[in-house]
Amino acid sequence: MGWRLIRTYTILVYLFMFLPIAVVVLLSFNANQFGSFPMTGLSTRWFETLWQNEAIMRAFRTSITLGLMTAVVSTVLGVLASLALVRYAIPGRNLITTLLIAPILVPEVVLAVALLLFLNFLNIGKSFTLLLMGHVIFTLPFVILVVQARLVSIRRDVEEAAMSLGASPRQTFFSITLPLLMPAVAAGGLFAFTISFDDITGTLFWKPGGIETVPTQIFSMLRNSISPEINALGTVIIVLTVGLPLIGAAVARKLATKSAG
Amino acid sequence: MSAVSLTDIVKRFGDFTAVHKMSLDIAEGSFVTLLGPSGCGKTTTLRMIAGLLDPSEGEIAIKGKRVNDVPIHKRNLGLVFQNYALFPHKTVADNVAFGLNYRNVGKDDARKKVAAALDLVQLPDLGGRYPKELSGGQQQRIALARAIVIEPDVLLLDEPLSALDANLREDMRVELKRIQQRIGVTTVFVTHDQTEALAMSDQIIVMSKGRVEQVGAPEEVYNTPASEFVAQFLGASNLLSAQCTGVSDGEISVEVSGFPKLSIPRERAPKITSAGPVRLVIRAEKLHLRPAGSSVDNGLSVDATVENVDYQGQSARYFLRAGEHQMQAVNMIEDHPFATGEKVSLRLRNRDCAALPAVSES
Questions:
Q1: Does residue B145 sit in the same domain as residue B115?
Q2: Is the Cβ pair A165, B150 closer than 8 Å?
């Protein structure tokens, strides 16, 4: 009896969460020119108009570029920071870790305004580079958390063995530590990419005039009308942000089982 | 020229001195064991030789060359850890070949050397496997192969057998010694296990609290402990307060209450130079239990009562009371062990006793 209630309740919660998403995906294939029910037929016309919409495609390219660059910068910085924090006795290690993780805890609006005010104070105008920096700030904690957790599990004596066999510290890093760290690096990079790709709050504050990312583009399109194109775009984004991490996780798991010690 | 020499080495961590001033010469080709309980400084010493720790003071030389400022990867050492430390993402063959990549060894040559090393550790067919597919014993053999394939100047073993289960540990002990003798590499072995130390070493360095307690061949360390610590750490010993009543050329006379008068050979009491209080050391396995009242054959006899028996199969450990002394004896069991409460006669021989100065000098 109790279990049946819980089961029903759970199903309802999931329906509440996922039904709207399913509706978006469903309606993106609607032939009707209004992005709502009833459906008049199946069609991929909204994907075609989406493809031909120069503004959206530009936003899409911007988002991809920004996401990739954020992922690369965040991952490199995150790995370096994790190495320093885990492998070396740095004074104030806990404080530094907390500061690096803090952007997750601070509300994004606060972070966004703070960075903007700081730029104003420094008399630096908005630019793509600064937008990138902003994204790096709030994706870095995820990379650090994932990479640190993995790094802790890589035994120091494996690295010591490599050095005793003649590998310099740098060679040891590239031939031993980094390959063993790879699943975490890949996961961190994927996190950074999807979070950056998804972000709207910070991006709205930081983006220079004339540059739109996919979320800000949708946002401005919604202000005028609800076009079915947005449904199609939503579907594409879902595929990207859900599908990519799933693939990534699968790859990471495969790497991990291959190299588990 | 010694393979490794430590001169006045000291290692401090903050206020804590892990290794007190220590000097040591390790002969080329010898198997030397650093033996002691955890925290005695043996691993710290090994890590300083390896270059994983810098000594706070003193000089380390390998093959006569000062290496204090030489980083680990340029010292040409083989290092084997307790937890094998194989590279989990590389095959066994790539693990073994790893060190050769940093030496001028051609591809064909490297392949031959790897095969020879795998042969030596008797795992010639596992080259293509990954470490996690191997058992603990196999992994440790591979770790050994990886360390010796580079023909190191010194092989450093940090408790390499401790992670293995008991039966395997004995096999590996024999195996390790065989390989070491075969290739003749100078070996420094760290362990807390006295059996391993006694079985494998040419020389044992017993350490306690960062200090060297005794350096000597296994038999020497076992038979003539230089301190109470050594006497108790290597095997079970009975330590009794005694009185030395005379020193002559060949032996010293020792009196213990309730014991017949003992005449201990001088070489078993090298530190006793004059009459006075001493500590008498008798190994538990050198005290032989006989039924009370059985005839005394040449040796010395002390009456005692069995207070407790720790039955161990082929042998038994007896906790005994002899007058004011509580003692332990470990004897092989012939038919049945003696029972708790049984009166027995303890037999001992003069030459199985050793004497130490009463106040341990440290």
A1: yes
A2: yes
